[in-house]
Design brief:
Blueprint (H helix, E strand, L loop, with lengths): L3 H13 L2 H16 L9 E3 L9 H14 L2 H13 L9 H29 L4 E3 L9 H30 L4 H14 L6 H21 L3 H21 L8
Parallel strand pairs: 1-2
Helix pairs in contact: 1-2, 1-6, 2-7, 3-6, 4-6, 5-8, 5-9, 6-7, 6-8, 6-9, 7-8
Length: 245
């Protein structure tokens, strides 16, 4: 029998050191942006910034460290789920995962590009810069690794872990899915309100998929593909397409 009080504390602590913390900081970030002297539409949100651009070797160390530390929370989430749910595991089916992941990425990504454009035209989002690492030999591999880390962190913690734990607490599926999606949207608020809406909708779709299939690997694949296309695509094309600058 699951100790509900212990589960509540566990959920709050895990979110507090991972994406819940990011959501709180992102709320402060959007307040900062809205009260800044420049309008939100004239501000920039950089997703993968350089830390020490004058020292590329140290910048690489920072990037690898940040990305590596980002895998700790999902590993902890997997450990906690396997401890309390006998037989729970990350069920990898490469061909199926790639197929479903690609389909979900297309479903989310294509309308998402339109939403980003509309949000910026309406002045409710900052200008999003997917990467600013510079042109180093390690830039693209680091961006791919960052995309993978984002997919693993967000889908394991926000979908597999949080939805399972909320169900352990007798939440209905849709209240749990909406709560997860709202948190997902909240930690993207630093991008503006377009980031919140787009990721909230993504959270609803991914939550629905998890409810129907009980599988998280296709969601990790989809999220990773979306971020690779965004990060690496921008890095490779920004000097050739003037509207990306």
């Amino acid at each position: 029998m699951i100790d509900r009080r212990a589960v509540r504390i566990e959920v709050l602590l895990l979110l507090g050191v991972s994406l819940g913390r990011s959501a709180i900081l992102s709320v402060l970030a959007i307040i900062d942006r809205l009260t800044y002297v420049k309008p939100l539409s004239e501000q920039t949100a950089t997703l993968n910034p350089s830390v020490t651009p004058d020292r590329p070797w140290l910048d690489l160390a920072y990037q690898l460290t940040y990305t590596g530390l980002g895998f700790i929370a999902p590993l902890l989430a997997v450990y906690l789920l396997r401890r309390d749910h006998q037989g729970w595991r990350l069920d990898a089916r490469p061909a199926s995962d790639l197929g479903w992941g690609t389909a979900l990425a297309a479903l989310i990504g294509l309308p998402g590009l339109g939403l980003v454009w509309v949000a910026q035209e309406l002045g409710i989002s900052a200008r999003i810069v997917p990467e600013a690492l510079g042109t180093h030999w390690w830039s693209v591999p680091v961006l791919i690794l960052a995309a993978l880390q984002n997919g693993v962190l967000e889908e394991i913690v926000m979908i597999a872990y949080l939805l399972t734990r909320l169900r352990d607490l007798d939440w209905g599926w849709w209240p749990a899915i909406v709560t997860s999606a709202a948190i997902r949207g909240s930690y993207h608020l630093y991008q503006g309100f377009g980031g919140f809406v787009g990721n909230f909708v993504m959270g609803l779709i991914f939550g629905w998929f998890y409810r129907r299939t009980n599988r998280v690997m296709p969601l990790i694949v989809a999220h990773t593909i979306l971020d690779i296309v965004s990060f690496v695509g921008y890095a490779l094309l920004k000097n050739h397409l003037t509207f990306l600058r």
